[in-house]
Design a protein that fits this description.
alpha/beta, seven-stranded mixed beta sheet, 12 strands, disordered N terminus
Length: 349
């Protein structure tokens, strides 16, 4: 055996003090369990960083961190579960640096020291597993995919009413899913899943999957942000930036102004509004909308402070209400799609 082969073999057989597994586990399935099984053989402790921890329940993120932790730990004996540490990991969409900071903080909350013997474990399923290359100071352990299992079809079928099979999910996962199915929250998601299914069927005859274009307005004045509460599905009851779909014969900026007027009745003269546009940015995460590939152009308006107070607003069109919210009271768990990430990116929070 060559020297390089011996070094590779030693690395492959290395035993770690901590192995870190990052994922959303929506839901936890036997493919995830296969990774943990290997991690338990290769490390004293396994740190599960459970992603999308700061989001409201949605079709893509239906389960809480506590529910996902119960799925994970419930799949193991008490002795093995004691070696598995479940830690909530907030998303930081459009900001890799902030997300890396969250990962480091999550790991350190267990290890107490980022310089200790730490490795990352996972498999390169798709682009969502790119994190394995973002931590050059930590070793990487790759595990083969388990029967090409993916959480997406399991989750989609479940939200449409199906029950996951034992071949794809551990008993602990099925228990959490069965319990959740009895709740009003599940019924709301089930209704929304049916809505999205019918929505997507409208485009089945298209030669290519459609890409939609929207425009959103981010309005800030005197430390307050203008938001709406969504009247309809998807995201009924969640907070959102005023915005909507682009009409065939309008610019993105004109679409932004029109949707802003329709949804908030903002009492600001249009010339003043147009002159207050500070910046714009494109947001194109492929998974940002359950309705399909939807790219949005967000426009950031900074209105001047006014001793008379904040301009009057009133909900209209798709907005149940429109309201000014202090920036300090922004709550990611109440925000629609990626709107919290859009706000933090453009305002610099």
């Amino acid at each position: 055996m060559s020297e390089s082969s011996e070094q590779s073999s030693a690395k492959d057989n290395k035993h770690y003090r901590y192995l870190v597994f990052i994922g959303r586990f929506q839901p936890f399935h036997r493919g995830h369990k296969a990774v943990i099984d290997e991690a338990l053989k290769r490390a004293d402790n396994v740190i599960m960083l459970i992603g999308s921890a700061n989001l409201p329940r949605s079709l893509r993120n239906p389960f809480s961190v506590a529910e996902r932790a119960a799925m994970i730990k419930g799949a193991y004996s008490a002795t093995e579960a004691a070696r598995i540490h479940c830690v909530a990991l907030d998303d930081a969409l459009y900001n890799d640096t902030r997300w890396l900071q969250y990962v480091q903080a999550g790991v350190k909350s267990v290890t107490g020291d980022l310089q200790t013997d730490i490795g990352l474990i996972g498999h390169s399923k798709d682009s969502s597993s790119y994190y394995l290359s973002l931590f050059p100071n930590w070793a990487s352990v790759s595990v083969p995919s388990y029967h090409n299992l993916s959480a997406t079809p399991i989750r989609d079928s479940y939200l449409m009413g199906a029950t996951p099979t034992p071949e794809r999910t551990p008993e602990s996962t099925r228990k959490v899913l069965n319990d959740f199915k009895k709740t009003d929250e599940y019924q709301n998601l089930h209704e929304e899943a049916d809505f999205i299914d019918k929505y997507k069927r409208q485009w089945e005859s298209a030669p290519y999957p459609p890409t939609f274009m929207t425009a959103d307005a981010l309005i800030v004045q005197s430390g307050h942000i203008l938001l709406v509460e969504r009247r309809s599905m998807p995201g009924r009851g969640l907070w959102a930036l005023p915005g909507g779909f682009l009409n065939p014969k309008e610019t993105l900026f004109d679409a932004c102004i029109r949707e802003l007027r329709e949804e908030t009745r903002l009492k600001v003269p249009e010339p003043v509004l147009r002159g207050s546009c500070h910046s714009q940015h494109t947001f194109d995460d492929p998974y940002r909308s359950a309705r399909g590939r939807t790219i949005t152009q967000a426009f950031y308006f900074q209105l001047k402070n006014d001793p008379k107070g904040l301009p009057k607003v009133k909900g209209g069109e798709d907005a149940a209400t429109a309201f000014w919210l202090p920036l300090a009271e922004l709550d990611a768990t109440m925000m629609f799609e990626d709107h919290y990430a859009i706000i933090t990116k453009m305002v610099g929070l």
